[in-house]
Every structure is written in structure tokens, then in C-alpha cells.
Amino acid sequence: MGKKKAQQPSPSSDDLLNTLGDFTSKENWDSFFTIRGSDDSFEWYAEWTELQGSLLPLLQGAPPSSLQILVPGCGNSRLSEHVYDAGFHAITNIDFSKVAISDMLRRNVRDRPNMRWRVMDMTQMQFTNETFDVILDKGGLDALMEPELGSKLGYQYLSEVRRILKSGGKFICLTLAESHVLGLLFPKFRFGWNISIYAIPQKPSSKPNLQTFMVVAEKENSSLLHEIISSFNHSSLVCNRDQAIGLCEAFEKENQIRKEYLDGADIIYSLEDLQLGAKGDLTKLNPGHRIQLTLGGHGCSKYSYKATGNGSSV
């Protein structure tokens, strides 16, 4: 066996993050993973010891061998490795960084031979409709949603999530739950989805840091709308104050919209709602009940039409 080379000090996490700049740039991520190296995994947000108690129960039900799981924007996180070692072997990992995918394939090919790795852009995924039972996102949506870049990439990604997830499947999103992220995620999964939010336990600290949350959106074979459920007391969050305020405001705003709909207030449909979930029948309205239909895609001109039911037709 050859002589082992002395290891050079690794750059700090902060130094490496500063090299990224734009989290949506493939070239920046290639450089990041090249500097980081294949054996030095980088965990965004929570560690596996903090995640497994909340995550693994969500994967129960179907036989582990048949549960098709996608990990988009996998990077060099060990998340999918831990899930694989817990018995769930049908895992597909994608990332648009060739460096990351090459390193991860090399690291896992012997110990986890059934795990798949593909170079792919998560905003334009090359999978057929309703391919996966679970989509497990750890920081992917957050990386696409840099405030100065707008929500276009996040919108494209969530549209793909809706398309490739099976009926009854779960989108599990590990996120910092910033208000601009939830402001896109909640409406995108409004009709025909059941949403819950979990707070991932943190290690005790004298200085509250940004906390990781888990948003779970389950796809139903219906057009029902539900209020969002949280598994924690909003007033007792021990995280950064601005983060807690943003989360609570986004949560309460969306649930107010959903409550008004459930109480029989005016219904506002977008064309996408009708195509991908709401499936509202505009020819059968309750007497006096108004509906607003908004036409136009994300980032395009939009036109709204209002109608009032007379008991049988618009």
C-alpha cells in the first residue's frame, strides 16, 4: 500500500459558501464540490440524527423495496445514504453538477449498488408523469429561491414536483421556511394536497439559530382543500426571531385564504389549478356563489374573469 499523503487543512464552510455566490449557478456548484472533495460531505440544515425521528415514519406503509424515492439537488449530502441504509433502496438522486454526481456515484457504487445517480436539472426533470412515491428535498427549493432572482426557478421546480409525483405520494421539503419560499409553496399545493409542517429538533444552544422545518405535501386524487396543520406551538419556537415571525405570518395568511374558501367565500381559480388539481366544474355553481378564473402563466400577463352561479350554469 502506498504512503498516504498528508491532508491539507480544509477550507471552512463559510469560506466555501462565499465561493458560491449564486446558488443557481451550475459552474459555481461544480467549483464548490471540486474544492470540497468527494469524502467531505456538506450537510445543509439538520444532521441525520436530528432528522430521522421525523422523516422515517413518513416513509412507512409501502414495502421499502417498492417505494420509489427521488432526491433532487442531492449535492454531496449523505441524506440518501442514510435513507438507503434504513432499508429504502429504490432511490434516484439528481443534481445538475457533474462533479457532485460523479463523486457520489464513486462513493456509493460498491456499498449501495441499487442507488441511482443522474446529472439533471431539477427545474426540467426527464421523468414521466407520476413516477415517484416520495420526493425528498433538502434545501433544494430554498437554493432556487434567492430573493434577488425571483421565484421563476422555484415555480418551475414545484411544477415538476407536482407532475412526477404519484397520487398518494409525498413531497417532503426540508426548508428554512422563509416567507418568500412559503409564499410560493403553499399556493402551489392548495387544491388536492394535504400539507403538514414539522419543526426539526435542534441541539440546545444559548443563541437561537435558523431552524430547519419539514413541509410535507401529500398528493390526493381529489380537488379537496384542507387547512395546513403544524405539529408545533408557534409561540414557543426557539429559532431566529425573524424566521419565526416570517413562518407564522405565511402560515396564518395561507390558512386564512383556505378557511375563507371552506366557509363558502368567493373561489379564485387559476388555469393551473383547474389543470393540475382543482378540476372545478364552472358550469355548476351554487346560487349566488362567485368564482374568479385567472388566465395567464407565471410571469406573464394575467386576465381575470368573474362569474356568478344562477343554480345551473355560469
Automatic annotation (TrEMBL):
**Residue ranges of every copy of the Methyltransferase type domain listed in the record:** 72-173
Q: Which InterPro entries match?
A: Lys/N-term_MeTrsfase_sf, Methyltransf_11, SAM-dependent_MTases_sf
Keyword annotations of the record: Methyltransferase, Multifunctional enzyme, Transferase
Q: Does the keyword Kinase apply?
A: no
**GO MF term set:** S-adenosylmethionine-dependent methyltransferase activity
Q: Does the keyword Methyltransferase apply?
A: yes
Q: Which biological processes are named by the entry's GO terms?
A: methylation
One Pfam annotation reads Methyltransf_11
Question: Which PANTHER family does UniProt cross-reference here?
Answer: EEF1A LYSINE AND N-TERMINAL METHYLTRANSFERASE (PTHR12176:SF78), SAM-DEPENDENT METHYLTRANSFERASE SUPERFAMILY PROTEIN (PTHR12176)
Family of this protein: Belongs to the methyltransferase superfamily.
What name is this protein filed under?
Methyltransferase 13
* Native species: Bixa orellana (Lipstick tree)
